[in-house]
Records
---
Amino acid sequence: MTYTHLTTNELVMIEAHYQENIKVSDIANALERSKQTIYTVTNYLKEGYSAYDYITDIKSIRNAVA
């Protein structure tokens, strides 16, 4: 299985499902992603951030590494 980054659409969908209190396992199944991936994003959202914040943080981390 190859690793692919979450798309902007997937992050927005995770945020929407999270706000609707949908279970992580259900979100993971719907997006065909691992539960750990969804947990990582939802834990970030629990801290009061948004999907947009997650995207900008990840981009800044990727640029710092490159």
Note: The mean pLDDT is 93.
---
Amino acid sequence: AQTLAFYSILRKPHLNNVPKVSVLDQMGLLIEELGLAQVLDTKVSSLTASELQRLNLACHLLANTEILVLDRPTAHMDIFDTFFLVEFLRQWAGGGTGGLSGRIVILTLQPPTYEIFTMVSRVVLISGGRLMYSGRRRDMLPYFSTADYPCPAYKNPSDYYLDLVTLDDLSAEAMLESSQRIEQLAELFRRRQEPLSDPGPPQALPGKTKVANICSQFTAVFLRQSVYCQPSSLCQWIAHLLLACVLSLVVGAVFWDLPSSDPLLLQADRLGYHYTMMCVVGATLLPLVAISRTHDTDRLAAESDIKDNLYSRFMYIFVATLVSVPASVLVWLGFIIPAYAMTGLYNQGPSSDGFHPYIGYMLVYLCTLQCLVTLLSYLCPGRLSAALLTALVVLGISLVCGFPVHRRDLPITLDTHLAVISPARWILPPLAAREYADDALVASSAQHICKKNQVQRQDIIVQLPCPSPDGVAALSYHGLQLPGALPLSLSYPPYIPPLVLAVACLLLIPAAYIFSSRCYKLKNRRRNKY
């Protein structure tokens, strides 16, 4: 029912062909007449071949067109399903199922049984692109009898005459004999073919099926992405969220209570934590969150719908990206919050107001990287190539952020050009600036007692707290001191460039999708050509 409702939004009948019943009643009639009532609660992927064919037919019948062309609608059906479908099409053409009368159904069939053959009204027999016969079904046997090719008794005419006009390549003699017979029958029909009758006075052509407008396309695709894809899509996002939380807990356990474990900045654990979250563990979630959405069965279904002109590629990308934003943000929050809470970095300094800025910076970074990976994934034909390209891009972004390789050791071109488009290069220095601020370091080092820093007071030896480490010097040592660590000297906050990059990626994603789709079409044309 959801599939029919989806198509009913996107395919509207012409004003002249509006049925007498409502859309819901028409859907109910089609479900009942085509025998789909038993599988209303079944996934489309779980339907049999016969049920899929009947569902596909029901979707096209919703348009209520005057001329219906079907290519092998009875493929993969047994004789009973074939008889049922052909009989239904006869009734539909005569005005059944709440539609109009006087409609035409043109369909191609594999050699049907004799019972199916007697149900059609007109027959067209083609061989090698040439007409062997075209006319009424009841005139077919007398026609071939007059041509000295009568159908034997107890033989299915469909099988016999199809074999009669088929090239036999078992031997050279058989090939020559069959080609001469086909040429003879084609020439005979050309001579006996009756001239076309006078078309009569001009009449209005059958109305075209209405293409859905932008609002209808948005509504249909939004319902498909947010409602019809459930619960499979919801289960997938829940799995991503659980994995993100588990990875976050692992990182938090490794970097547990950083202010107490490294109060003197001797091990650079604070920078190691940020680099791990941004470029190591965070990068492992990107293929799941981004690539899994661009190379799944939903994209294959979307390509089929776009080919049928149900909606545009831009509308599909826009709605799919819009629907995935809340779920993506929830996954990234599940990845950010537990690890940062376990490190204790938010509780440094006289106030604990660093939680929200950190979450904001990390959301900007991860969402920007997700948009970039989504753009690259649409440019790749498969999952493997998309994963390899994503790995190379993330590696380049992480190398120029300033932590794994010092800025002075980077080539000038990488430090000046690639760093500008690296979100990690823009986000890491502001995060490190707060962790290495004087008030934060004083508060964390005050609880640490230096054993060698002793003072004698009235014959009593007292151990004094360690002096506060120099955070500015530590950042300068790693080349992450603001504002020199930023790729460009800007007057606005450092999270603005990643946001601009994310918006640019979102704008380029439709272009990448269209480009990759055109490449697929060109590749298929070359295959068909050769």
Note: The two ends are 42 Å apart (CA to CA).
